């Protein structure tokens, strides 16, 4: 129970911090959405956040999300679920069926699988392209110098409705230049949605144009061991 109470209190603090960052940046109140990252967290930790009015959540793994959110979404149909972790091609059908937003379109094979499933299921989750702003070999995402070409492929060849871009800066670098790069690519491509900023740097992301921030540990505490 103490953990659930703490999560609710933390949620209020994060909302207040987002509002303060909006004001500091001269942004319109409510212009930045909060994706509460519930990966590894059990249902009993998530329900209090829903009861506190949080309706947008992020999960990393399709299978884990299915085990929690099929029930939670049936209880609260207004909940919006985002996939924020890498998508394996053999999970694409399940992802399109469950998630309202897929933030990690990161390669041609996945884009084609998503297009196929959208046509097959007649369901259209919003799509973000993940950009590997740090060109980290271990991290998913399109290389920045290939981003515009990939966006064009998704839009014009695959007829995918791309809502925006997403990035995860290198953990040991100043995130500011990475957020600036993402914003520059988005502006060039005419995309208005930017998913960037996490628990340690969302204020910086808001100052640099984020429209969504993904916050987990600042709300729910440290990630559960797997």
Shape: globular
- What low-confidence regions span 5 or more consecutive residues with pLDDT below 50? none
Multimerization state: single chain
Measured distance between first and last alpha carbons: 22 Å
Structural class: alpha/beta
- List the secondary-structure elements in sequence, H or E: HEHEHEHEHEHEHEHEH
Using the CA coordinates, give the radius of gyration. 17 Å
Question: On the 0-100 scale, what is the average pLDDT?
Answer: 95
Q: Got a strand count?
A: 8
- The biggest beta sheet, please? 8 strands, parallel
Task: Give the strand content.
Answer: 15-25%
Binned, the helix content reads: 40-55%
| Annotation field: number of helices | 9
Strand order of the largest sheet: 7-6-5-4-3-2-1-8
Summarize the model shown.
The protein has helices spanning 2-24, 43-51, 62-75, 92-98, 108-121, 147-157, 176-189, 202-207, 217-220; strands spanning 33-37, 56-59, 80-83, 101-105, 126-131, 162-167, 193-195, 212-215. With 226 residues, it is of the alpha/beta class.
Characterization of this structure:
- This protein has 226 residues and is of the alpha/beta class.
- It is built from nine helices and eight strands.
- Helix 4 (92-98) packs across helix 5.
- It is globular, with a radius of gyration of 17 Å.
Structural features:
eight-stranded parallel β-sheet, 8 strands
Layout of strands and helices, then pairs:
Blueprint: H1 2-24, E1 33-37, H2 43-51, E2 56-59, H3 62-75, E3 80-83, H4 92-98, E4 101-105, H5 108-121, E5 126-131, H6 147-157, E6 162-167, H7 176-189, E7 193-195, H8 202-207, E8 212-215, H9 217-220
Parallel strand pairs: 1-2, 1-8, 2-3, 3-4, 4-5, 5-6, 6-7
């Amino acid at each position: 129970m103490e953990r659930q109470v703490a999560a609710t209190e933390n949620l209020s603090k994060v909302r207040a911090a987002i509002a303060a960052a909006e004001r500091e940046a001269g942004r319109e109140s409510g212009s930045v959405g909060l994706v509460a990252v519930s990966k590894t967290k059990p249902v009993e930790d998530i329900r209090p956040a829903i009861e506190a009015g949080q309706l947008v959540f992020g999960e990393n793994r399709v299978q884990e999300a299915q085990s929690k959110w099929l029930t939670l979404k049936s209880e609260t149909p207004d909940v919006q679920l985002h996939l924020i972790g890498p998508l394996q091609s053999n999970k694409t059908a399940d992802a399109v069926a469950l998630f309202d937003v897929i933030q990690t379109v990161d390669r041609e094979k996945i884009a084609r699988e998503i297009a196929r499933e959208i046509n097959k299921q007649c369901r259209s989750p919003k799509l973000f392209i993940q950009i590997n702003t740090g060109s980290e070999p271990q991290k998913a995402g399109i290389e920045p110098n290939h981003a515009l070409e990939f966006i064009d492929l998704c839009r014009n060849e695959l007829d995918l409705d791309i809502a925006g871009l997403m990035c995860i800066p290198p953990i040991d670098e100043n995130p500011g230049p990475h957020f600036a790069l993402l914003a520059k690519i988005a502006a060039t491509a005419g995309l208005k949605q930017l998913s960037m900023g996490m628990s340690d740097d969302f204020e910086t992301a808001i100052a640099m144009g984020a429209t969504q921030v993904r916050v987990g540990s600042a709300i729910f505490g440290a990630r559960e061991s797997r």
